[in-house]
Amino acid sequence: MKTNNKKSLYNGGNVALLLLKMRTFIALFIILGFFSLTVDGFLAPSSLIIMIKHISINAFLALGITFVIITAGIDLSIGATLGFCGMIAGYLISNSLIIEPLGIAIFPSVWVVVPVVIVIGGLIGALNGLIITRYKVAPFICTLGTMYIIRGAAMLLSGGETFPGLQGNPELGNTGFDAIGAGYLLGLPIAIWLMFIMAAIIAYIAKKLPFGRHVYAIGDNERAAELSGIKVNNVKVWVYTIAGLCAAVAGIVVTSQLVASHPATGTAFEMNAIAAVVLGGTSLAGGRGTIMGTLIGAFVIGILADGLVMMGVSEFWQMVIKGLVIIIAVIIDQMQNKLQYKAAISSQKLAS
Q: Is the Cβ–Cβ distance between 168 and 174 less than 8 Å?
């Protein structure tokens, strides 16, 4: 009888653990069901495409910092990086690069602007990684500091002003930037295609490449990973570099959609991204998380935000609800950790 009781308790724990692991999908279906009943035309194809287009911005950031959080780190500078990279794109399209010795001015094409901006985002992320690993600065403090530096740099670039009208000039050969945010491919916005492509690439890295396994190993036990031969500092630098690259892509898409760049763009975006990652099942303690979970978490946060707007809910209440979602997500994460620990202990007892 005692053995049967133990087995029933063990199975009950497994069911609860399974429900916690599937919490993001459950939350997504509940939210979709609720808004479809309360908002007319919520599930109309046109509405869904617009919502997914909005979601893609948060998804870019969330996908980028998933690896960071799996290593038990954090990056508060991704929102500022988004804004700064958008300003760089705006500056390059609005202003010429003057080469004084030759007496010429160059207006870079979109094919030059986009790679340059992405590289700059990656360099910002790499700088975060180097400061964290080389000088042993806590990720929270380091990225909080760089957040202010990057935001200030964005303000200095234009004196706090906006770079408007980024459609470019056909005579200068720098048109096409607005197509990134407003263009369509096979009936879907380019931003949505970029989101799914980025998710597929990062998921492949996480599942198929040694780098992905190293990221999980560091988050699970950094000291053990180091003793096993993993170059922990190198992996961490690359992890923050990926976050910077993804933030740059998000900055390009946002700036393209607005056809203008403002230094304050991306303010507090990092909070939505972190919420999506945690809601998607990635543990803040490190060592656990999936790219698919992050993507679904971004959908939950995005659909919740757009649904509240369509219902006419006050922006102030939206902030309260988002805050509650973050707190609940962290509480559920802690519950999952405890249940996993108890399940492991129970399985060991049953085996013995």
A: yes
